[in-house]
Amino acid sequence: MILDFFRLSGKTALVTGANTGLGQAISIALAQAGAHVIGIARRSCEETAQMINNDHGCFHEITVDLNSLDAAEIILKQTKRLTDHVDILVNNAGIILREDAVDVSPDDWNRVIYLNQTFVFLLSQSIAREFFFPQQSGKIINIASMLSFQGGIRVPAYTASKSAIVGLTKALANEWASKNIQVNAIAPGYMETNNTTQLRTDSERSQSILERIPAGRWGKAEDIMGAAVYLSSHASDYVNGFTLAVDGGWLAR
User: Fold this and answer.
1) DSSP 98
2) Count of other CB atoms within 10 angstroms of residue 207
3) What is the three-class DSSP state of 103?
4) d(CA 46, CA 168)
5) pTM for the predicted model, two decimal places
6) What confidence tens digit (pLDDT) does each residue in 31-70 have?
């Protein structure tokens, strides 16, 4: 049956930024599809854990400062204590700092680039080397953005990092597809998350964004759930290096 292609029973998934927003929704979706989810965040994932446990799912968490230079190593060590296999990695954690380009400090630039871009590569490399290569299978989902395709306003580091994510997704797919490792990305549109609070509370800016979205509304965290399950499942085994926009039609406008 075709629905069996989407089931994740017996799979283990790592999700960064699992404590809130899109990461929380993705974690819940993967757990509902049958996966054992290991949520990774710098703050407690207690709320996510409770929601998954209420659904009789399986969830563990790893608490670590993702900005630390040894974060990928720490995650790998703790993951190996929790499981002997990883099948799915969702690189969701990220940061956005809004400031005029002329005023962005080197420290702020490096902070955004490290978490949104460098850490994504380091964790993907680490998990692929330790788990995906030996088992000759794996799924990596990188969370991109509308600003992977557009310049944005007052977010130069975020735009640079998310543009790089689309390129990195293609580069890793080119190398790893032959090893039965699918690397793809999801580009969420303008979603109701912590990262967009400033935009949504600016009535003029919020209205201009809504006028551009054919669906006529901001996206919700649950709008990302189906795409995450699809790209984590056998249904996407021949999808490599693709960035799927979940944007209410923003890019089509």
Assistant:
1) -
2) 10
3) helix
4) 31
5) 0.97
6) 999 999 999 999 999 999 999 999 999 999 999 999 999 9
Q: Listing from the earlier edge strand, what are the strands of the sheet with 36-41?
A: 58-63, 36-41, 12-16, 88-91, 138-143, 181-188, 243-246
- Phi, psi for 65 (deg, rounded to 5): -75, 110
In angstroms, the first-to-last Cα distance of the chain is 36
Q: Amino acid identity of 216?
A: G
Residue 31, SS3 per DSSP: helix
Catalytic residue numbers, as ranges: 158
Residues written for the chain: 253
3-class state of residue 104 by DSSP = coil
Per-residue pLDDT tens for 68-88? 999 999 999 999 999 999 999
* Structural domains of the chain, with CATH: 2-252 (3.40.50.720)
